[in-house]
Amino acid sequence: MTAPTTTAVDAVPSPELDLAKQTSALTVQETIPEPDTEAQDAQLPPHRSHDPQHNMKRTDPFMFGSRYLEEGDDVFEFNAWDHVETDDAYKEYSEQQFAMQRASPVSDFDKNRFNADPARFWNLFYKNNTANFFKNRKWLHQEFPVLGTVTTEDAGPKVVLEVGAGAGNTAFPILANNKNPKLKLHACDFSKKAVEVMRSHAEYNSEMMQADVWDVAGEELPPGVKENTVDVVLMIFIFSALSPLQWEKAVRNIHRVLKPGGAVCFRDYGRGDLAQVRFKKGRYLEENFYIRGDGTRVYFFEKDELARIWSGVFETVVPTDENKVGSSKTTSDPLPQDSPAGKVDSQLFDVEELGVDRRMLVNRAKRLKMYRCWMQGRFRKK
Ligand SMILES: C[S@@+](CC[C@H](N)C(=O)[O-])C[C@H]1O[C@@H](n2cnc3c(N)ncnc32)[C@H](O)[C@@H]1O
User: Fold this and answer.
1) How many whole angstroms from 254 Cα to the centroid of ligand 1?
2) pTM: predicted TM-score of the whole model, two decimal places
3) What spans are recorded as compositionally biased (Polar residues) (predicted)?
4) Which DSSP letter does residue 376 get?
5) What is the DSSP string of 237-266?
6) Per-residue pLDDT at 100 exceeds 50
7) Which of 6, 70, 166, 339 has the greatest number of beta carbons closer than 10 A?
């Protein structure tokens, strides 16, 4: 895929939201730039200008995408840079953090507690965080043009299913921009409280939108959704909330509801994201899988791993002795079709696009660099 032109910092209504404001253990030594004068500004290339008429410096955190760090630029001149690879110091720091996290995993008692009823912790989350809910995700249509297609006036009957819709941060902007009188938007979440929040939203319109409780890794299909009927499935920061043991079931359920040729629009956390690196002791459930302070779970994906999952390569899952509920060890290499240890179902999806979206956030006052990393993809039902 082409690198996304815009990205979102409003990834999730979660404790991580404020990461950019917090300090990181990574301090970098670089020279402080001289303040720009207006005359200097006029001659600067747009990605470095501070002139509001001329620049790509934006204060709104939801619209980035065009500020590339180039040779000679001062990292601390702006709050954020797009498509930046992590530097060696950060990589080293991350590996140290991961080793520290692995050495102090969540206790078996707590693993069982968190894995046994994850919806309970999301219900608490939606009870406790009402103030942070609604974001205007201006980036949605730009990143997923199919949303523009299904919401045009003459698109005809179209069905969109959002999985793990939460408070409706994705669903309501879609509804607000919709011109298609024949659109049906199903917004599902396994948290009853999240569904209540959506149903009580001022813009909830039961003609066009249906919010329901649904577990994407369960046995049933969503209420009112039949097999092979959905045009687009949206999965925005939901897959990371599942345990690796649930991935296959979720992928198969999405496959069931989609029409042949239907698309999955996917965005989620990437391995090495600041949110992962910052986890302290006692949060590690298993490799790349953590428990947040509020009891919600989060996984950080590798690009190849996502490509394998959505291509139908389901890896060996070996429940460990320490924790039989929701814990697993997965192999990291694709498994051959006939491997007794793994399954391959090549009939599921084509991975049409899959990219890594990186951004460097800068705390200019503290001279700190912080890296965010998201995965974004489009998968098509065969
Ligand atoms: C990080 S939040 C993202 C919410 C929303 N997609 C957004 O971007 O604002 C993850 C959501 O996934 C939901 N979720 C977690 N596991 C789920 C499951 N098995 N089935 C359906 N929803 C689930 C949670 O309740 C939560 O609302």
Assistant:
1) 15
2) 0.80
3) 21-30, 325-334
4) E
5) S-GGGS-GGGHHHHHHHHHHHEEEEEEEEE
6) yes
7) 166
